[in-house]
Fold:
Amino acid sequence: MTRKAVIGMIRAAALAGAFFLAGGAIPVLGGIAMLFAPAPILIFAVGRPSPNLRAIIAMLLAGAFVALLAGPIAGIGYFVSFGLATAIMCYMLERGSSFERIAGVTAAAMVAAVAAVALAFTGGPDGLIRTLHDELAQGMARGQEFYKYFGVQQTITADTQASIIATTIRLSPAFLILLAGCTALLNLRVFWRWVGPQRLPYSLFGDLSRWSAPEWMVWLLLASGFGLFIPVSGVSDLALSGFIAVAAIYFCQGLAIVGFYFHSLAVPAIVRAIIYFVVFAQPVVAGVLCIAGIFDMWIDFRRLKPPSHEAGNLGDFF
Structure:
């Protein structure tokens, strides 16, 4: 490895470690920065000679930086979350995998590793719930102190705080799945925008306005939906998390439908921005997009499937 490559590796590892540590040091903005922790190493390693070896060494170096500055527990936290995600994304990018497969595998691996390590450190599900409760309460207190330091007064009553913490704990598996999936997608997008077309021999994203979820995904939606009625709290909570995760995927398909018609009708950028803002700000509109994504499999809003009179495609009637 050349001297330039070694310097690049140290720089990428330092940036990855800094992004990860920002999540615990700066409320809100630091959390957003933490999501991009894999990007520096992906940009450094993918498409270069010995990419997986470069990524692993840089990931280990970033973990060492984190452990040195924030302690060994933080270093382990980096390895089993963003470090693992970095290594998986680098390996799958080099194998020419699609962005959906990379995001799915990366999110599943991150969730499984983080859950296993969290259960091991806290002694089981009860200990994990207690730890989550304490961490959330301390995080909310630190957030209020942080904004109070800048003159922003935010007072949350004890009942409201308890309700927020209970809801967050119940939906924490869904949050973790969505966070892991968003992390993979964001970093893949950053990599593609930065150096992807010059480093990869294939188009990673293609035309996103024509993207669709796999048809078998609807069975996961139905299974998790029926799981909500199982009269066992732990099982129904997990089913709720699975239902939210699958619904989020169909929401993305709804966004693809909207993007397809924006492009077809040459909608001005300012109008697109306003509509996207409404979509993300209004839960009802987001729910409509999610439903559109589900029924797109049968209705084919974008006419992507060839007309089939034998199959009686509902899209033929529109």
Q: What stands out?
A: Residues 15 and 40 are 6 Å apart (CA to CA).
